[in-house]
Specification:
This protein is mainly alpha-helical and about 475 residues long. It has one domain. It is built from 18 helices and no strands. The chain has helices spanning about 5-35, 40-60, 60-70, 75-105, 110-120, 120-125, 125-135, 140-165, 170-190, 205-235, 240-275, 280-315, 325-350, 355-405, 410-415, 420-435, 445-465, 470-480. Helix 2 (about 40-60) packs antiparallel against helix 4 and helix 16 (about 420-435) runs antiparallel to helix 17. The chain is globular, with a radius of gyration of 22 Å.
Length: about 475
């Protein structure tokens, strides 16, 4: 099977999985948003900061180094497997030990029980994460997608069940633990068919993987802090309720970059890694990936910005009205982050993780004082506004420092990736604005449905008549695959 066929198949399976997962997470967010208050969401936001940080060190970049490596032995895999388990034990113990410091940081005594609960996740996760990497390395995207979907389905349904029965924050945390447990069980069950780790641990065998993984871990850890500085600062200085008002819209805008973009990136990284020595093919592939990411994300964030006021009140209730302006500002943040997201896969695949590390270190140094000033002077609105301004700056430097080093001068090609999405999204936005004059006074729920429908139809029509090469190629694939005639 050709790389293109593997990529198409991988995108297909991962897309189906991600659409289902996004639907489940939106359902969870809506139900819990109506049941729980802003304080509960704020506490969960604090917990997720700790969870995400610890996950970086449990893996240590080993999963990506396995995918990146062209030659790997069974002994090396076994050593890496048991090394990951040792890391998980160490992280779990460390979380217990630093719990008082975490409570002191956020000034929330209620966090203690939940932090202890999530510490057990890091004893579970290493049992299956290597199998996850091997499924992707072997282009087994279908099985990986099924496992992800089932684990999220069970975890989210469990979370909703607990929330409806009045368990509050417990429902959010335990739902996360159950998702992790189910995913690990499924990965272990199916992954052991690929290979069974031996009782073998030789540290000299993991050195070459750590040399790649440590840079990638450092880069991803700094990048993680870059995306969580706002949460840390709001939680520390403005409290759990303010963080909850900010967290709900942030969770909404993060779904595309956290779920939709990885549809492409999860497939792109192993594909790029397999042709890492062929720069021309990587360059063409990367700009195709970026074009697709933009076509997906531009209409989402343009549309969400325009319907934010009615979307928040209809879906989550009037108690969340303070989140409307935050959501509109964060739509810009989400769009710019989605544009920069595929660069990470490119840098890993081409072995330039050191450049990513330095770039994200620069972001950390500049974001920390900027967002802190925003919080102190203008509250959560100030945090969102400063965050948006900085994303503009980082997109410029991402090209100058990362893309130019990895692909050479390519500004024109880079800017062209925005055109197939930008003009249709602008036309779609204009149609939604014009629709306000025709559906004024209509019931809010019906108005929301009409605006979403108008946006989807107008954007879809624009793509049907698009002559962009990537869009045309995609329409040809649909024509052949489903025997339909798309313009």
């Amino acid at each position: 099977m050709s790389l293109q066929s593997r990529a198409i198949k991988g995108v297909g399976w991962t897309s189906i999985s991600t659409v289902i997962i996004i639907g489940l997470q939106l359902l969870q967010l809506v139900i819990l948003g109506r049941i729980l208050d802003a304080t509960a969401f704020g506490l969960m936001g604090m917990i997720m900061v700790i969870t995400g940080f610890a996950e970086k060190f449990v893996d240590m970049g080993i999963s990506n180094s396995i995918i990146h490596s062209k030659n790997i032995t069974t002994n090396e895999l076994s050593s890496l497997y048991w090394f990951n388990i040792l890391l998980g034990v160490c992280i779990s113990i460390l979380i217990w030990l630093v719990t008082p410091l975490i409570i002191l940081l956020f000034k929330e005594q209620d966090l203690e029980k939940y932090i202890h609960w999530i510490s057990f996740m890091f004893l579970i996760t290493p049992l299956g994460q290597q199998y996850r990497a091997l499924l992707l390395k072997n282009f087994m995207f279908n099985l990986s997608a099924i496992i992800e979907t089932l684990s999220y389905l069970i975890g989210i349904l469990f979370s909703i069940m607990l929330a409806v029965s009045g368990k509050g924050v417990d429902s959010l945390v335990l739902g996360l633990v159950v998702t992790t447990l189910v995913r690990t069980i499924l990965l272990f069950f199916f992954g052991k068919r690929l290979y069974r780790p031996k009782l073998h641990l030789v540290f000299s065998e993991i050195s070459r993987f750590l040399s790649f993984g440590l840079y990638q871990t450092g880069e991803s850890t700094i990048n993680y802090f870059n995306t969580k500085i706002d949460t840390l600062i709001i939680g520390r200085f403005l409290g759990a309720t303010a963080l909850g008002i900010y967290t709900l819209p942030f969770n909404i805008i993060i779904l595309p970059s956290a779920k939709i973009n990885p549809i492409i990136n999860k497939v792109a990284f192993p594909i790029f890694s397999s042709i890492q020595d062929e720069q021309d093919r990587i360059k063409k592939g990367f700009f195709k990936v970026l074009t697709i990411v933009n076509i997906i994300n531009f209409p989402i964030f343009f549309g969400l910005y325009l319907i934010s006021p009615i979307f928040i009140t209809v879906v989550f209730g009037e108690k969340w009205e303070p989140s409307i302006e935050i959501l509109q500002i964060l739509c810009g943040v989400g769009l710019l982050r989605s544009i920069g997201n595929p660069v990470g896969s490119l840098m890993m695949a081409t072995g330039n993780v050191d450049l990513s590390f330095k770039f994200n270190a620069m972001k950390l140094i500049t974001q920390l004082p900027g967002i802190l000033i925003g919080a102190m002077l203008w509250g959560i609105n100030g945090v969102a506004s400063i965050y948006l301004f900085l994303q503009f700056i980082y997109i410029i430097f991402s090209y100058l420092y990362l893309l130019k080093n990895a692909l050479g001068p390519c500004l024109i090609d880079y800017l062209r990736t925005f055109l197939p999405a930008l003009f249709p999204a602008m036309i779609m936005g204009a149609a939604i604005l014009v629709s306000n004059y025709f559906i004024h006074g209509v019931n809010d729920f019906i108005s929301l449905i009409l605006k979403i429908t108008i946006g989807v139809v107008i954007y879809g029509i624009c793509l049907l008549f698009s002559r962009d090469r990537v869009v045309v190629d995609f329409k040809k694939i649909i024509n052949v695959k489903f025997n339909v005639n798309i313009l």
